[in-house]
């Protein structure tokens, strides 16, 4: 019987170990390259959009209704399905260029866009659609995919001016010391400006006076004393108001006035009236008395900063919405500037109503 020989294990030499490590490293490198290639390939594939749906009812019947939360990740493709159950509507996402055409029953639309930067975006109807039209608002929440639990703020533009908001006291009346007793025509003021100053910059005069914190009444008194413009104290009161109307229009700008008029007509006139009288067709339903924007003893005492702040914040408890989350900074100041057209073009004298809760 031949005895069995013990098995001999192969010797692991340093050379063999090195070769094995080299092979293993090569395999891992190839695996890493494959994973990287797969990731890059996947990044080139179209990302499936999130599907959102909004149905529009009349404002008094609920306005915008959504079945699922309007919440997406920044940069995510979105398909927003819009349909109208009743009435005609149009949608705009504030602080973006995302706008629908007119939406009516039987004519649905799909808005396709990439979700903007993180924040809370107001979605509002931009077409007059019935009583309580201003209630046609909802919110799109856009989260940061790298920090999904971060708190979201309403998206708003950076303010043009640093304003002392608490000192403005925007919910209090601001009676003027002086006001125009008749229409103050900017065209007449332009003629006077040419006679008194030559080629000076009219906007700079109001900057020197303290724009936007000075009211028309206060600037008028500076002109009356000759503090802002030489010889402005020598002309009649009515001419001085015409001069001020010209300065005001030059400071606001022609394009801004036109834009302000368009926004006011579309968004404000239903309550405040096309003529600023406060007798718009929805004013009877307002929870507060609509102010007469032509009322000179009141309007001449309101500074641009006070008008702007009230428009941006909205009227607390008055039904006037917060426009700062919907309009751009440029649009807010355009509307602010346009409001003074009622004072200069068609001033009305009278007492400021004690019960008037200013919008």
Describe the structure.
By secondary structure, this protein is α/β, with parallel strands linked by helices. It has two domains: 50-143, Sandwich (Immunoglobulin-like); 165-345, Orthogonal Bundle (Cytochrome Bc1 Complex, Chain D, domain 2), CATH 1.10.760. The chain has ten helices and eight strands. The strands form two sheets. The chain has a four-stranded mixed sheet with strand order 2-1-4-6, with no helix packed on it. Strand 1 (50-56) and strand 2 (64-65) form a beta hairpin. It is elongated. The model has no long low-confidence stretch (mean pLDDT 89).
Largest sheet: 4 strands, mixed
CATH class of the largest domain: Mainly Alpha
Task: Give the low-pLDDT segments.
Answer: none
H/E series? HEEEEEEEEHHHHHHHHH
Instruction: Quote the CATH topology of the largest domain.
Output: Cytochrome Bc1 Complex, Chain D, domain 2
For the termini, the CA-CA separation is 116 Å
Q: What is the CATH H-level superfamily of the largest domain?
A: Cytochrome c-like domain
Structural class: alpha/beta
Radius of gyration (Å): 32 Å
What's the number of extended β-strand segments?
Answer: 8
Oligomer: single chain
What's the structural domain tally?
Answer: 2
What is the count of helical runs? 10
């Amino acid at each position: 019987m031949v005895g069995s020989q013990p098995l001999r294990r192969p010797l692991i030499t340093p050379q063999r170990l090195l070769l094995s490590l080299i092979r293993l490293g090569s395999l891992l490198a190839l695996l890493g390259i494959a994973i990287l290639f797969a990731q890059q390939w996947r990044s080139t594939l179209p990302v499936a959009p999130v599907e959102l749906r909004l149905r529009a009812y009349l404002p008094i019947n609920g306005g915008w209704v959504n079945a699922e939360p309007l919440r997406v990740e920044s940069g995510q493709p979105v398909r927003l399905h819009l349909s109208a159950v009743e009435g005609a509507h149009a949608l705009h996402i504030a602080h973006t260029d995302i706008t629908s055409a007119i939406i009516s029953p039987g004519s649905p639309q799909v808005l396709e866009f990439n979700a903007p930067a993180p924040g809370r975006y107001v979605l509002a109807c931009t077409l007059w659609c019935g009583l309580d039209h201003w209630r046609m608002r909802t919110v799109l929440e856009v989260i940061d995919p790298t920090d999904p639990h971060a708190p979201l703020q309403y998206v708003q533009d950076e303010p043009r001016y640093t304003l002392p908001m608490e000192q403005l006291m925007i919910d209090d009346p601001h009676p003027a010391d002086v006001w125009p007793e008749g229409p103050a025509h900017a065209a007449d003021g332009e003629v006077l400006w040419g006679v008194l100053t030559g080629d000076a910059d009219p906007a700079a005069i109001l900057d020197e006076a303290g724009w936007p914190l000075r009211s028309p009444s206060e600037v008028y008194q500076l002109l009356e004393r000759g503090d802002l413009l030489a010889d402005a104290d020598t002309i009649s009161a009515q001419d001085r108001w015409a001069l001020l109307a010209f300065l005001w229009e030059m400071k606001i700008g022609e394009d801004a006035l036109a834009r302000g008029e368009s926004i006011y007509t579309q968004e404000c006139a239903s309550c405040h009236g096309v003529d600023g009288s406060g007798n718009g067709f929805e004013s009877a339903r307002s929870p507060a008395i609509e102010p007469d924007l032509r009322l000179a003893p009141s309007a001449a005492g309101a500074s641009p900063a006070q008008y702007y702040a009230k428009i941006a914040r909205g009227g607390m408890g008055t039904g006037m919405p917060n426009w700062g989350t919907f309009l751009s900074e440029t649009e807010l100041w355009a509307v602010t500037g346009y409001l003074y057209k009622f004072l200069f073009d068609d001033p009305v004298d009278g007492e400021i109503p004690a019960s008037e809760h200013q919008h």
